[in-house]
Amino acid sequence: MKRLLSIAAIGVLAVTALVMVRCNSVTGGAPTDVALAAATDSTVKVTWTAPSEGTPDKYIVMFSETGTDAYEPFDTVITTEATHNPAGKTGTYKVVAKFGSTDYDGTPTPTTTPISSAVISVSELNAAGSSGYGWTRADGSATTYTMTQASNAASVDFYITDFATGYSGPDYSVASPDLGPSDPTGVVPSGSWRINGFTAGLSNENSALPMHSTSTYFNYQEISTQPFLTGCYTADGYYALVKVDSYNTGSGTAQVRSWFQKVKGLRLIEH
Amino acid sequence: MRKVIAALAILAVVFVVGCQDTKKVTELQGQVDRQTQQITAFQGQITQLTAERDSLQKIITDAMAKGGKIQMPGAQQPGTKTGGTTPPTGGKKSSGKPPKVGR
What we know:
heterodimer; A: mainly beta; Immunoglobulin-like; five-stranded antiparallel β-sheet; 1 helix; 7% helix; 36% strand; elongated; B: 103 residues; mainly alpha
């Protein structure tokens, strides 16, 4: 009986020790270099660097949809990458390294939420002011550019035109920059202007943009409604949503806002 | 001496079994998470397909009620200027529009 008690006591001690150390060192650290890329045009690949402090028991990869605060786990892995199908949603990603019962939050927490740009007044090609509009790839910000300088060719993603001299319309269009030099106004110099595509009018500004194909994206689109929504696919493989709130043929201006997806090749645009 | 050996043996067995269980739980949890994600994706697809089906049914129902021709969504509407690959015609100022080309 005494011997049995001794063995039981040793067993309890062993289990306690196992719970405390969990087969690993108690020291741990956070994953770093958490980054996103398009796995497909509607799914997201998350990658990161393992903590220098050691190998965690596992990583929990989490997603927080745009407009919400809570993170929901969608995968548990022991490698340093995971793929997520967000079902058309955008949001922020977090990787947590688990060392025993201790969590270490990875950095940074990258997002697929598109970069929103406030309303900017964009001029028709013949009106006073800048008629070119482009997104900076590094931060997704939008800026207007004059179309009369070839040095802006590498920065412009579309321009506003009525494909005629003057700016009285009656129709304005969102046009790919490469159409500039052949525009009847003759004010755009030749250059390496981007060859971008635009969808016909869209009805829901939070739905994923149409998949890129030459039967869906065109060299220009008439602004047929006000407001008017069109998807943009750029020559270097980015998706963006352009919203022309309104245009005025008297002043020759259009009120434009946009959402730029910084993850190249991803057509999710919920915002 | 026998007690010490027995104690060490129990200690080793508990550690080995415990570690294996921990890894197994991690693997199973990963599988459960992936399956849950797939189910979520399928549910989204079902929702989308159901909405498309309902939309088509409504179009057919409306067309049959009117006794007219069925106009599919996305098709060129008479008199509109968007969609399709044909350059739209318009007033005299529209003549400068280039052909609409897919990109």
